[in-house]
Amino acid sequence: MGTPTCILPASSPLWPVMGNDRPVTTAVCPGSYDPVTNGHLDVFARAAATFERVIVAVLVNQSKRSLFTVAERAAMVAQVCRPYPNVEVDTFEGLLVDYCRTRGVRTIVKGLRAVTDFDYELQMAQMNSRLAEVETFFVATSPQFSFLSSSIVKEAATLGADVSGLVPDSVLTHLRARVRGG
After folding, report:
1. Which of the following is catalytic: 64, 82, 130, 180?
2. Could you tell me which of 97, 104, 113 has the C-alpha nearest to residue 39?
3. Confidence of residue 23 (pLDDT cuts 50, 70, 90)
4. pTM recorded for the entire structure
5. For FRET with 38, which of 81, 103, 150, 168 sits at 20 to 30 Å CA-CA?
6. Contact status, residue 79 vs residue 2, Cβ threshold 8 Å
7. DSSP tally for the chain: helices H, then strands E
8. Is 64 among the catalytic positions?
């Protein structure tokens, strides 16, 4: 069985000029990551294996009450992404498409846990495509993380549950300290 190919017209925005016909292989993984979970890390690792460069973009969302500041979230993401030399961490505020435009990124990677994620993410992907020349790639979450979300982890940790195994160990330390009032 041969390697699958994707045939794009030469005029496609997904084929920017790089000295030859080679596509840019930078992707952005946007999210609030409050906190970053093992499910997120799974998506980052898979994106890092697929793209030459991955930017994990931590969202500054003023309308959402966060457990961790954006700087703390970015630092935790950077720490857990250290094994992936092609992954960098950044923060952004505002529209994702504006961030992508300023960084020259045309590919967004989003993890999907369930059909409910797909309904929402498909609308976002179509809107992003309409607003800017970006494409969204959906990555099916690994089955062991299909139930996992930052919200569930925060709620469980706040109520005293052991969330080890759901978040990276370094994040677990920060999470335990925060829910204890630290």
Report:
1. 64
2. 113
3. low
4. 0.85
5. 103
6. no
7. 6, 5
8. yes
Q: What is the third-level CATH fold of 26-146?
A: Rossmann fold (3.40.50)
CA 9 to chain centre: 28
pLDDT digits (tens, 9 = 90+) for 28-43: 999 999 999 999 999 9
133-136: list long-range contacts, CB under 8 Å, 24+ apart. Answer: 133/13, 133/14, 133/106, 134/97, 134/100, 134/105, 134/106, 134/107, 134/108, 135/14, 135/106, 135/107, 135/108, 136/107, 136/108, 136/109, 136/110
Among candidate residues 53, 101, 113, 178, the one labeled active-site is 113
Taking each helix axis from N to C end, the angle separating 169-179 and 70-80, rounded to the nearest 10 degrees, works out to 150
Write down the catalytic residue from 46, 106, 110, 150: 150
Residues 6+ apart with CB under 8 A from 8: 14, 15
Is-catalytic flag, 113?
yes
For the segment 43-57, the average pLDDT, to the nearest whole number, is: 96
Q: Does 110 qualify as catalytic in the annotation?
A: no
Tell me the one-letter amino acid at 119. D
